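Exercise: predict the fold of this chain.
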Amino acid sequence: MSALMPWLGTLVLLGGSVVFVAVIDSLAFALIAQRPPVNLMRDALLAPWRAVAVSLVRQQNRTEHPDRLNWALAPALYLALAGIGLAVVPLAPGVAVIDAPTTVVLWGAVETLTVIAVFLHGWSANAPLPLIGAYRYAAMGLPIMLLSMFVLIGTALPAQSLSVVDIVASQHDVWNVLRQPLGLFLFLLLGLSLSLRGPFDYADSADLAGGTAGEVSGAARLTWQLARHAMLVAFAAMASSAFLGGYLGPVRAGPWWLALKMLVLITLLVGAGHSLARLPPSRMLTVLWTVLLPLAFLDLAQAGVVALW
């Protein structure tokens, strides 16, 4: 029974958090639209379930000569990557689905393969706007992955380990967000990119009529949206573990602390996704290479100095 606890806990955390993401998303839309406050929360709670029902009965679009196999596999790959990313996060001391010495490297593989999943989604539709979204996202992928690598190595230095379990344990006295004040901010930008949100939504943006998801409808679009929510959940769990102590808390460590930190980060990222403007792709690439990446390297250098001190 104990061997099943990490799996059951991870599934419960994933399912509950995905519903939370959908509700917060609906609430953000309602607030931006300045809807009357009467029954606002009730409508936000019901909106995701209405969207599910509508998607399941809606007819699916079909483009001319798509790569049907890869078009179906891309959302499945995206969702599987979110599950793997969440599986490396310890829910409590000694409770993790994947407890290996190099789980930070595994998380890096999840980030990299997410670029492939999104690109595959846009390429396989055989339509111009989804393909443009796929290429734009791939162009952003390299600098974002490098930024994440620098920041995560900084969190691994105090633990002297590439294991997420060890990184959480190393924050028993001081959380990494205090050791790396800039690191969490930079890492949150990765979360917006991985979940295709806000200023880093270059794959499924409105200026491309939905981008890689522009030709998708019905159950296929629902699956893609579910995968996006799941990836946001996985990222929030990783960010909470790498910078906010994960399951550690003021009293009695446990999964409730991890869940609470995740919900705070999810709310923050959803809010940022709805409120922050997106730069043109060329300007964003310039900012990534000339501003954010140097800041990430400085963050790594500062983390190294603190670790040696």
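Check your answer against the key: DSSP finds eleven helices and no strands in the chain.
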